Structures are given as structure tokens and as C-alpha cells.
Amino acid sequence: MDFQVVVLAGGTSKNLVPLVSKELPKALLPVANRPVLSYVLELLELSNLKDIIVVAEGEDVALRIGSWISGAYEERLRVEVTSVPEDVGTAGALRAISRHLTANDILVVSGDLVSDVPPGAVAATHRRNGAVVTAMLCSVPVSGSSESGSASGKDKTKKAVVHNIVGLDPTKQFLLYIATGAEIEKDYKIQKSILRAVGQMDIRADLMDAYMYAFKRSALQEVLDQKDTFRSLRQDVLPYLVRSQLRSEVLLNGTPRTEENGIEKVGSHKIQVLLSQILSNSSATSFHDLYACGADGSIPVRKTHKCCVYIPPSSNYCARLFSIQSYSDINRDVIGEASHLSGYSFSAQNNIIHPSAQLGSKTTVGPHCMLGEGSQMGDKCSVKRSVIGRHCRIGSNVKIANSVVMDHVTIADGCSIQGSVICSNVQLQERAVIRDCQVGAGFVVTAACEYKGEALARKEK
Q: What are the alphabetically sorted keywords of the record (predicted)?
């Protein structure tokens, strides 16, 4: 479709410490024993989008990602891995590689996206509407939409904090308003000038920005050049394009651009039902169709640029790995309800046990579990809703539930692991108990110790 594809792979996210490190950047974190970046690359491949620029933060991260890609996708994809400085943000990353962007349209995808929504659907929507930007907005995952993320399983019961409030036209094609990072525990205020400009708007708080955007390159380049302080696509570039879409419409309605006092309150009770009609007009005419022929239906007016959305059916799976909680959730989903994403064939017991794995007497591996290549388990062990990596050595009478255990982990007799993430090369000595914890790579948990709700990591030398 003549789209240039950019995958933003990031670096070592602070939200994912101690899971990530210089040796294991975020893009290579295993999800069902596959690097999370593989889910995006194979999604693009399915849409026949095979010319890809992968952007990593830091040269070391770029080298590690490039080495893995060259081994895994050498015959399948044409991938250029390039590095940008750390902490430049997503907009800064695109600004840094702008000389590489030459196509008329650019598809930007987050490297932490795990989804079965075809990128081609976003690209087609973008082209059909002649938009300057098209954003994919998905239903908020059951576990919540907070991008700060919780660090322990016990926080999962807390009420989800919605971080996006969006306004759509009646046809649900056009993005008319967006507020990111917005708390909606209290009433949320929207300027009356915006409401008058759009005529009708549905306020939604049940949609997650999936960080898949199609941009018209010339418009994106102009924003990046003119707004050199913009760091984030989600928090800076997208809201800016949406706001500028309305400017001439505000003037057409006779409302001064500088008006700040006219405020419409949207009650939190309305937002909690997730769909609010701001005005009573039931017309389904789209915002851009209305102003293409004039507000009164006869006088032509200058069309502004279009900011569009693609909202996939709720039956599609869509999640982003931006926190420890989301990491646990996605691993659970990919071996559970979204098992079609795993790329593996499940057994009659609805689990995945590698042929080379060894199980002791009276050891049970339940449904929605994965046991990786070369791993060994002793007698009378129990595994429930968990992923166990490759070449792990697990003793007898070990219980593992709702957890992720990465590669080359040693777990001695009598240990119990629940609701936790155990990173590679960790050692758990006899009768250790780990609940709702994250254990960093190479950490040693001493015998008979019990930890709950903690992040355990080796001290940096």
C-alpha cells in the first residue's frame, strides 16, 4: 500500500524495572516465550508490510534488537534497525530519523503492541478519508487502561483509571477531541467553543490509544519541524493535529479563537456509562461532510485537514506492554483467551509442553500453561495459568500459579511462586515463597525466605 512502516521499539523502560536491563531491553521481553517485538513484526508481515524501520533507544539496544531480528527474520522481512538517543520520546524518535521518511504516508506502530488487528485496516481507513492522521483506538482491556501500571497483582482489583477522553463525530470516523492523561473521577470540562464548532460529539472514555498511527508524511514533518519541544506522539502531536482541525470551524461559528470562559461540564456519571451525547441533534452527518458544503448546506467553505480513527470490533485482541501488570496480563491472555496469537499448537489439555520438556511423577501442568524447551520438573509439582521458559530446572513439590518464569531459572524443592515474574537465571533455594513479586535477572532467593509484593534485584556493581 506504499506505506513506510516505523516500529518504535523503545529501550529499557523504567516502568518495567526489574524485568528489563541493558541485556534484555523491553522489545525482547518474552511473551509466551517469544520477544514481544515478534508480535508486531508478524502482524505487519501478515498485512504484507515487509519494509520496516525499527527505532531503538540507545546503540546497545539497537545492536541487540538487530542481532535478534537478523536471525529470526532474515528471509522474511527487510528491516533497518536504527538507534536514537535515550529519552527523546516518540516524537523525538521520529524527528531524529526524519531523513529516512520518504513515502507519502507513514505507519507508526509501537513495538509493545500485542494485537490481531490488521494494520492494513488502519492504512485503508487513512487513505479512504484522505486524513492527515488516523489513530487506532481499541476497547480498554479488562485489567484497565492506566499507562502508569501497577507493580503487583494485588493492585489489580483497584478501579481502573481512564487516561484518554476522546470525542468522536456521529459516524465514528473522525476524531474531534482528545485529552490524554485525564483523570475523570471529577467532572471533566470541555470548552463550549469546541462543542459549537463540532455541532455534535460523542464523548468516550472506554477507548485505549493502541499507538498505531497512519500519518500523512508532509503534515507530520511540518509538526515535528515547527514544534521542536514536542516529545510524545500521543500527548503532543496527536492532540495538536486534532485541535488545529477545529480552528477555522470555531471562527466560522462566530466564536473568537481566544474564548476560554465558555465551559461545558461533562458529569463523571455520564462518562462512567462510557457513551454521552453532548447535544440532542440526532443527525449522523459527519463533521467534515457538514463543513465541506457549508454549515447551512449551501455555502462552500474551506475544508480543514481530517483526523480519523479506526475502531476495531471488540472481538479483536489489543493490548500494550507498558507496565509490569500489563506484562503479566498479556502473558496470561496469549496462553489463554488470545491463544491464537501465540503461534503455537495447543494440546488436548489446552496447554503447551515442549516435546523436550520432562515432567516428574504426579506433576500436573494445567490448561493455559506453557513449559518451554529443555525444562525439567521434579515430582509432585503443580503449574496453573503460568508460562515457564526454556531450560529451567525445577525441583519437587513446587507450586507455580499465575506467574511468568523466564529462561534458565533454577527452583529448588518446596518453593511456591504466585502472581509473580521471575526473570532469567534466577535461583530460588529450598522452600522459598514468592507472592506478587518481580525478581530481577540473576537474583538469588535464599532458602525459606518469604517475599510479598516486592521487586527484588541484584545491586548494580
A: Cytoplasm, Initiation factor, Protein biosynthesis
Kindly report the backbone phi and psi dihedral angles of residue 174, in degrees, each rounded to the nearest multiple of 5, phi listed first: -115, 140
CB atoms within 10 A of CB 429: 18
303-323 burial, b at 16+ Cβ within 10 Å, e below that, comes to ebebbbbbbbeeeebbbbbbb
**Full DSSP string of 342-361:** S-----TTS-EE-TT-EE-T
Do 319 and 377 sit in the same domain of this protein? no
CA–CA gap between residue 309 and residue 125 (Å, rounded): 8
C-alpha separations of 249 from 193, 200, 299, 303, 350 in Å: 10, 13, 14, 9, 55
Within the chain, which residues score under 70 in pLDDT?
1, 142-163, 181-199, 246-304, 460-461
The verdict on 57 and 108 lying in the same domain is yes
CATH assignment at residue 404: 2.160.10.10
* 341 part of a folded domain: no
Chain center to CA of 225: 27
Domain that holds residue 377: 347-456
C-beta separation of 384 from 367 below 8 A: no
Q: Sign of dihedral through CA atoms 336, 340, 343, 346? A: positive
Q: Are strands 188-191 and 263-266 parallel, antiparallel or unpaired?
A: antiparallel
Give the chain's radius of gyration (CA, Å).
24
First to last CA, the chain: 50
Q: How far is CA 75 from CA 2, 70, 71, 109, 248, in A?
A: 21, 9, 9, 22, 50
Q: Is the peptide bond before 18 cis (omega within 30 degrees of 0)?
A: yes
Number of domains, the chain: 2
Give tens-digit pLDDT for 426-438: 999 999 999 999 9
Q: Which amino acid is at 300?
A: P
Whole-angstrom distance, CA of residue 115 vs CA of residue 137: 12
The reported pTM is 0.84
Phi, psi of 41 (to 5 degrees): -60, -40
249 — phi, psi (to 5°)? -70, -35
With 0-12 / 13-18 / 19 or more C-beta atoms within 10 angstroms meaning exposed / middle / buried, residue 208 is buried
Pairing of strands 3-10, 51-57: parallel
Q: Give strand pairing partners of 383.
A: 365, 400
- Residues 116 and 221 both lie in one domain: yes
pLDDT tens figures, 384-406? 999 999 999 999 999 999 999 99
Q: Is residue 334 part of a domain?
A: no
51 contacts 78 by C-beta, under 8 angstroms = yes
Nine cell digits for residue 187: 467532572
